[in-house]
């Protein structure tokens, strides 16, 4: 895969690292918003190679991590019903609800299927008209257009046995909430490139202005991330706070007009709860009134849910960049990928899982974290 | 909900990762007992009437039954032959049991049997016993196959995961990830530019070519379910040594890398069916590598790392940029990501 090799070239990476080291004169902390970036940073050891006075803070951008427990519990309840085919992206299957996960529902006989696209779920609905097919629509602006398109197609084709359990979240309100927090330590943002490839960059200048914070739109390969960091450091050192696009091969200021058009037709913005963080105003999407028939929450009456988060889990603070994963007492002990207490330990893109998977050699060890039975 | 406390079987219990290992160690081993089983090698090394035999069994539940580069028939032969070969044995005889789902076309069963027979002839093994069962419609996936095999371990050969030791060089016989991606591409209807073809192949000939250079091969393992990561973790755990991988040296075909990047999978965890990893003393490494490259199934052989005294029981990769990361045992099966 030539283009991936090119974006992982060690010699070019070294040049970027040298440039960053020459530019930086004091301590700076910056947040990579997206869990994909966190994963790439930890997987390639980028944080180990940066000058010690640059701190990367891991942001809330893992869709698996921020989906509220109540929505997970609703998904588990719907997926357990006879006559329901419950379709989901793969990494949602292991996310713990209050007392089980979708794998358990599947093990207990529920018809839970992994699909690669919501359109696959719509296809299943057309092939099995006697079953209620539900797609679990979670994610940021990246996945939302495909899910909106599935709803649009379902309506156009008049597929009556298809619905969506939607819990979409938007990045800009999350950045706003992080900057407004009195404990905020973030001095610059590496914005998520794939979110901006859909939405464009026009939502960001007001944020950069209001909070006097540089925002650099950044990709996911090692060189993309190093270039994003280099530009953020340069702005910080110069006292600037602009929006810069360091991912021009994928991102245009106006975004993707086709995706935006279907998003606006099918979704409307709403206040949304983020797991571990709380409700952020206007930070989510829900199906618009015209698509109410395709809303699984409307179609399936779900009552009697009692959600319960493990008290010891500090994933909310991890998601807000207030602590590092290994600073949580449960990290690597009560909470591991096999026994996750919080969603940040479940998803590959969760900061806790990334630290557990890749960093146990270098994080301070609270106790045995390496046992492999 | 702790996964290890699942009161029912979940798919990850068959994924070749941590959940599979837990099931074996905490449920099967206490029930059966026995030192030979407890060694948890790909095939058991047993002595019978003075002969040192390797004995192994495996079940094949792959879907679809036919895929680019192979079928459940070849897999059922190659998988068991390879398990025997990983103890240095020369595979000789196979058993073959079919579990058929009511309603399956007999022409399909016939084709599987033909391909199984052809694979056995190619691997120079003989099917000497078998069994057939039929289950109700809806209670199977068309055809399941179980094979068991025995082979003779040559004198002076002692190959098992416990023998890895610091100083050993780690060699892989060719590019990784092809089988898993080939299956995924047909199962999910995905295409990745170039068609990815399964690497399914019998490795006993390659192993014999390696042993002809030196009997001093410490460990062999075919990285099937759970991929290279699971195989190396099992060896690190069994031997109590560390493994260091040079990530850029691990051969990953372009189409496999593309597919993995697209789906959020790590090629280190993707299944293989015709590859092996070998731990060889440094003094013999070049000769073994040359012998592998001279064999048709080892042309792409490469040195990808070493066995070290540091971080015992763990596999650590040196990343392309010069950092390090742990390569852990997978939990269950890899799950494609959201975005």
From TrEMBL, chain A:
Spans through the membrane: none
**Record's InterPro entries?**
Hyd_form_HypD, HypD_1, HypD_2_sf
Going by the UniProt record, its keywords in alphabetical order are: Iron, Metal-binding
GO biological process terms, semicolon-separated: protein maturation
Task: State one Pfam family annotation.
Answer: HypD
Per its record, what are the GO molecular function terms? Answer: 4 iron, 4 sulfur cluster binding; carbon monoxide binding; iron ion binding
Q: Which family does it belong to?
A: Belongs to the HypD family.
PANTHER family hit by this protein: HYDROGENASE MATURATION FACTOR HYPD, HYDROGENASE PROTEIN ASSEMBLY PROTEIN HYPD
Write down the NCBIfam families for this protein, in alphabetical order. Answer: hypD (TIGR00075)
Write the protein's name.
Hydrogenase formation protein HypD
The protein's organism comes out as Streptomyces rapamycinicus (strain ATCC 29253 / DSM 41530 / NRRL 5491 / AYB-994)
């Amino acid at each position: 895969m030539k283009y991936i090799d090119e974006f992982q070239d060690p010699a070019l990476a070294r040049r970027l690292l040298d440039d960053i080291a020459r530019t930086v004169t004091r301590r700076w902390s910056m947040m990579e918003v997206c869990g994909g970036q966190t994963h790439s940073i930890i997987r390639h050891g980028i944080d180990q190679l940066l000058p010690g006075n640059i701190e990367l803070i891991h942001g809330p951008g893992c869709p698996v991590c921020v989906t509220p427990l109540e929505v997970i519990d609703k998904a588990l309840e719907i997926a357990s019903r006879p006559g329901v085919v419950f379709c989901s992206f793969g990494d949602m299957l292991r996310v713990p609800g209050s007392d089980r996960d979708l794998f358990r529902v599947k093990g207990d006989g529920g018809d839970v299927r992994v699909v690669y696209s919501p359109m696959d779920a719509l296809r299943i609905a057309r092939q099995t008209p006697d079953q209620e097919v539900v797609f679990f629509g979670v994610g940021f602006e990246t996945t939302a257009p495909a899910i909106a398109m599935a709803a649009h197609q379902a309506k156009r084709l008049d597929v009556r046995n298809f619905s969506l359990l939607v819990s979409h979240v938007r990045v800009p309100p999350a950045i706003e909430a992080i900057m407004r927090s009195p404990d905020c330590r973030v001095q610059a943002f590496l914005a998520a490139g794939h979110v901006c490839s859909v939405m464009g960059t026009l939502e960001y200048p007001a944020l950069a202005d209001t909070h006097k914070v540089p925002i650099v739109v950044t990709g996911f390969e090692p060189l993309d991330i190093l270039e994003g960091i280099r530009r953020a450091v340069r702005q910080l050192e110069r006292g600037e706070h602009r929006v810069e696009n360091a991912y021009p091969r994928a991102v245009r200021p106006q975004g993707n007009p086709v995706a935006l058009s279907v998003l606006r037709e099918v979704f409307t913005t709403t206040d949304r709860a983020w797991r571990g963080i709380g409700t952020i105003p206007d930070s989510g999407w829900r199906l618009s009134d015209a698509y109410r028939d395709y809303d699984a929450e409307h179609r399936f009456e779900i009552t009697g849910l009692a959600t319960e988060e493990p008290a010891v889990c500090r994933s909310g603070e991890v998601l807000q960049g207030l602590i590092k994963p290994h600073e949580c007492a449960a990290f690597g002990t009560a909470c591991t990928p096999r026994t996750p207490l919080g969603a940040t330990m479940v998803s590959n893109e969760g900061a806790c899982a990334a630290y557990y998977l890749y960093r146990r050699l270098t994080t301070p060890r609270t106790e045995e974290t390496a046992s492999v039975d | 909900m702790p996964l290890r406390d699942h009161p029912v079987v979940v798919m990850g219990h068959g994924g070749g990762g941590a959940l599979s290992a837990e099931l074996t160690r905490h449920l099967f081993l206490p029930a059966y007992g026995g030192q030979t089983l407890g060694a948890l090698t790909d095939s058991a090394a047993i002595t019978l009437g003075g002969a040192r035999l390797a004995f192994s069994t495996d079940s094949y539940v792959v879907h679809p039954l036919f895929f680019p580069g192979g079928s459940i028939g070849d897999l059922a032969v190659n998988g068991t032959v390879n398990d025997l070969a990983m103890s240095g044995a020369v595979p000789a005889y196979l058993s073959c049991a079919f579990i058929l789902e009511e309603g399956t076309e007999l022409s399909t069963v016939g084709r599987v049997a033909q391909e199984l027979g052809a694979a056995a002839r190619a691997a120079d093994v003989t099917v000497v016993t078998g069994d057939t069962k039929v289950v109700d419609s809806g209670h199977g996936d068309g055809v399941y196959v179980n094979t068991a095999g025995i082979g003779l371990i040559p004198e002076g050969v002692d190959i098992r995961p416990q023998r890895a030791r610091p100083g050993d060089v780690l060699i892989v016989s060719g590019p990784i990830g092809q089988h898993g991606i080939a299956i995924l591409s047909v199962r999910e209807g995905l295409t990745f530019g170039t068609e990815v073809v399964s690497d399914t192949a019998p490795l006993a000939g390659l192993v014999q070519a390696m042993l002809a250079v030196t009997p001093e091969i410490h460990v062999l393992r075919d990285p099937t379910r759970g991929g290279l990561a699971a195989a190396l973790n099992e060896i690190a755990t069994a031997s109590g040594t560390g493994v260091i991988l040079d990530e850029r040296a691990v051969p990953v075909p372009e189409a496999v890398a593309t597919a993995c990047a697209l789906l959020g999978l790590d090629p280190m965890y993707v299944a293989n069916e015709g590859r092996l990893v070998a731990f060889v003393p440094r003094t013999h490494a070049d000769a073994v590598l040359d012998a592998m490259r001279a064999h048709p199934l080892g042309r792409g052989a490469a040195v990808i790392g070493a066995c070290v005294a540091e971080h015992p029981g763990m596999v650590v990769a040196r990343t392309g940029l010069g950092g390090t990361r742990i390569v852990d045992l997978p939990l269950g099966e890899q799950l494609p990501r959201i975005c």
